UniProtKB/TrEMBL annotation:
NCBIfam families: rmlC (TIGR01221). Catalyzes the epimerization of the C3' and C5'positions of dTDP-6-deoxy-D-xylo-4-hexulose, forming dTDP-6-deoxy-L-lyxo-4-hexulose. One of its GO terms (cellular component) is cytosol. The lineage of its organism: Bacteria, Pseudomonadati, Pseudomonadota, Gammaproteobacteria, Pseudomonadales. Keywords: Isomerase. Belongs to the dTDP-4-dehydrorhamnose 3,5-epimerase family. Homodimer. One of its GO terms (biological process) is polysaccharide biosynthetic process. It catalyses: dTDP-4-dehydro-6-deoxy-alpha-D-glucose = dTDP-4-dehydro-beta-L-rhamnose. This is dTDP-4-dehydrorhamnose 3,5-epimerase. It comes from Pseudomonas pohangensis. The active site is at H67 (proton acceptor), Y137 (proton donor).
């Protein structure tokens, strides 16, 4: 497991070791001890334990996000794609952070096996680049409807460079999300 800090050092790209031969491939998708050791090596905090796993399936062009949960149910997320491909985005919404309002965008796919660690204090979203894209994520807190919040995916202050050539499919709730300037920090 190789951890690579992104332009926002708290957000980490994870490249698992994949063993492939004529039969197919094998990889260890998660090992808590290794994950914690590698985060510590980078000088990053160890997250709370993962308590919930989620799995979504999306058509090409489905854009989900930018979602986050407010305290006391803020969530860190470890995300990956097991089928298809997605452009994944994490936005720093930590008040007072040197990287507040900046984002990291990476492609996660079944082919590249990469994962992304997104700690508490970030909004998260993705767009499916292929039909039947399966997106899995582990979270450090349970879903709490009363704490859910979102930022608009197309907020001009964020200037996210989403992939071109897609017809975005976005649900009404995400279309009506607040702008970064209207950021909610508590319930």
């Amino acid at each position: 497991m190789k951890l690579i800090q992104t332009d926002i050092p708290d957000v980490v790209l994870i490249e698992p070791q994949v063993f492939a031969d004529e039969r197919g491939w094998f990889m260890e998708s998660f090992n808590e001890q290794r994950f914690h050791t590698e985060l510590a090596r980078l000088g990053l905090p160890i997250p709370r334990p993962f308590v919930q796993d989620n799995h979504s399936c999306s058509k090409k062009g489905v854009l989900r996000g930018l979602h986050y949960q407010l305290p006391p149910h803020a969530q860190g997320k470890l995300v990956r794609v097991t089928q298809g491909a997605a452009f994944d985005v994490a936005v720093d919404i930590r008040q007072g952070s040197a990287t507040f309002g900046r984002y990291v965008g990476v492609e996660l796919s079944a082919e590249n096996h990469r994962m992304l660690w997104i700690p508490d204090g970030f909004a998260h979203g993705f767009v499916a680049l292929e039909d039947d894209t399966h997106f899995l994520y582990k979270t450090t807190d349970y879903y709490a409807r009363e704490c859910e919040a979102a930022i608009r995916w197309d907020d001009a202050d964020l200037a996210i460079q989403w992939p071109q050539g897609l017809t975005f499919i976005i649900n009404q709730k995400d279309l009506e999300a607040a702008h970064l300037r209207q950021l909610k920090t508590s319930k």
